[in-house]
Every structure is written in structure tokens, then in C-alpha cells.
Specification:
Largest sheet: 6 strands, mixed
Order of helices and strands: HEEHEEHHEEHEEHHEHEHHHH
Number of strands: 10
Strand order of the largest sheet: 1-2-3-5-7-10
Shape: globular
Helix content: 40-55%
Structural class: alpha/beta
Length: 288
């Protein structure tokens, strides 16, 4: 007969506790800094005392920031991270949800869906610098970006089934695309987490860095992206996303549309001239 773990063991395995109801709320639940002459948007989930658990206010603010990034022409790349040295985000704030009516819950769910949709649809490159715990919606937020780099203390998990939920922020679709299907299902069904090192081994995280070095590594990547043609970078992102799952020739057709548009774009002329003249290129911000 299988022995069921007692409650303390069950929740201790998750590695975190619900956010305290009386946690002091920051003035801004999400911060944004525009770096490198405005080319890089550094977005920080800012409730470190609550392991950056996502409240309704945080979701609303994050959507606003992503929408601003989308239309601010000079922004060429965005990075998402968490405040503090413990957590990227442990997902939805369950202490807040405990007080909600069914209508409140469903309304918040719509708000969170809007955040993730806005993130997935962002034309510009955006990646996650996961600086610690990434559970539930926090892990799904990271999965919804273009790629992930992680601190060596990062942990990824989908514990929704442990609290009676089917994951609803994208992981049943996204995890099997970045992990072996069986491993993704095991995580979703058991609530078991994976370390940064395991996520790297399996291909979920591109790089792992000591926590103290994570943001320097993230900004180095962001600078390299920002210094390339934003039109070309956005076109290749669209080609990758739009061709995913398509038959080979349809995928090639999508790729070639992006290629031919770049071939007649001024950035191609500037890029080749800079290479021949052995200088840095000066790419223009897109006019859309």
C-alpha cells in the first residue's frame, strides 16, 4: 500500500510558502529601466518579500509595460527578471486568491491571460533571466519568452496539480516543446521541479551562471541583440514562431518571406557596407 506523504512534507517539497497576507507592497509591482540609450528594456517583477508572487496589480502593470515596449521604436530587446536573490516568481499569489469570489478569480484569470498573450505576441525579442524559484505562472512566464538563461540557484516547477489545478498559463503546451514529452508530463502530473542544471541539460535553459553574474550575462546577450538590425531580428523571430509545427515547405516559405524582405531593406545595405569598411553598423529603428 502506497504511503501518502503528510501535509508538511508535501508542501515542503515545493520549496516555498504562500506569500504573507501582510507583506508590504512596493509602489510599483513591476519596474522597467531603459538601458543602452533606450535599446534595452529591463523588466523586473518587484515583490521580493513575496517571492515575486503575481497579483492582479502586478499582471496589469506588466501588460502595460509590454504594450509600451511593443510601440516604443527605440527598444530593440527586453529582459524579464525578478527582484531579490531568491525568486524569479512563484506564480499567482495564492494568499490573494484565497479571498476571491469565483467571479473575481475568473476575472483575474482573464487579466493573466492578457499578460501572457501580450508577451507571446511581442514582435521584439524578449528573454528571461531566471534568478531563483520559477514555479507555476512564474515558470510559464519564463517559458513564454523567446529563451531562458538561469542562475545556478534557479528551480523550475509546475505544482498546479498539487493544489487541484490544471496548469493554465501555457506549460501544457510550452513544456513539451522545450523538454522531452515524458519529462514535461511528469513535471505537470507530479509537481516535481527541475534544477537550473537539469533545465540546461534538457535544453530548457540556454545558459546557467552564478547568481551574482546572471544580470551581467543577460545584459551582454541583450547588447548583442540590440546591436544587430532590429528589423532582421524581429523578422527571424517571426519566421521561427510562425513556422513552428508547419510542414517543411510551408515553413521554408515563411522563412523566405522574411529573408526577401530583409534583402531589400536599408539595414542590409548598411550591414554589408559596415563589414567591408570594418566599422560598426548603424541600424535604424524600425518604422513600425
Amino acid at each position: 500500500m502506497t504511503t501518502q506523504p503528510n501535509r508538511s512534507d508535501r508542501w515542503a517539497a515545493m520549496g516555498f510558502t504562500p506569500a504573507a497576507a501582510d507583506v508590504d507592497e512596493p509602489d510599483q509591482p513591476v519596474l522597467v529601466e531603459y538601458l543602452s540609450d533606450g535599446k534595452i528594456a529591463l523588466i523586473t517583477l518587484n515583490r521580493p518579500e513575496a517571492d515575486n508572487a503575481i497579483t492582479t496589480a502586478m499582471g496589469t502593470r506588466l501588460t502595460e509595460i509590454l504594450e509600451t515596449v511593443a510601440v516604443r521604436a527605440q527598444v530593440r530587446v527586453a529582459v524579464v527578471t525578478g527582484a531579490g536573490d531568491r525568486a524569479f516568481s512563484i506564480g499567482s499569489d495564492l494568499s490573494q486568491r484565497k479571498q476571491m469570489t469565483k467571479e473575481d478569480w475568473l476575472r483575474q484569470r482573464q487579466d493573466f491571460d492578457r499578460v501572457l498573450y501580450t508577451l507571446r505576441q511581442l514582435r521584439k525579442p524578449i528573454f528571461a533571466a531566471v534568478n531563483g524559484l520559477a514555479f507555476g505562472g512564474g515558470s510559464e512566464l519564463a517559458q513564454s519568452t523567446d529563451f531562458i538563461i538561469a542562475a545556478d540557484n534557479a528551480v523550475f516547477g509546475q505544482p498546479e496539480a498539487m493544489i487541484g489545478l490544471s496548469a493554465g498559463g501555457g506549460s501544457p503546451v510550452l513544456l513539451p516543446r522545450v523538454l522531452p514529452r515524458g519529462k514535461a508530463l511528469q513535471m505537470l502530473m507530479t509537481g516535481e521541479s527541475v534544477s537550473a542544471q537539469e533545465a540546461y541539460r534538457l535544453g530548457m535553459a540556454n545558459e546557467v551562471h552564478p547568481q551574482a553574474d546572471l544580470m551581467a550575462a543577460a545584459l551582454k546577450i541583450a547588447e548583442r541583440i540590440a546591436n544587430n538590425s532590429p528589423t532582421a531580428v524581429q523578422a527571424v523571430k517571426r519566421a521561427v514562431r510562425m513556422s513552428d509545427g508547419e510542414p517543411l515547405e510551408q515553413a521554408i516559405s515563411i522563412m523566405m518571406e522574411a529573408h526577401w524582405r530583409s534583402a531589400v531593406h536599408p539595414d542590409r545595405v548598411e550591414g554589408i557596407a559596415a563589414f567591408i569598411e570594418d566599422r560598426e553598423p548603424h541600424f535604424q529603428d524600425p518604422d513600425y
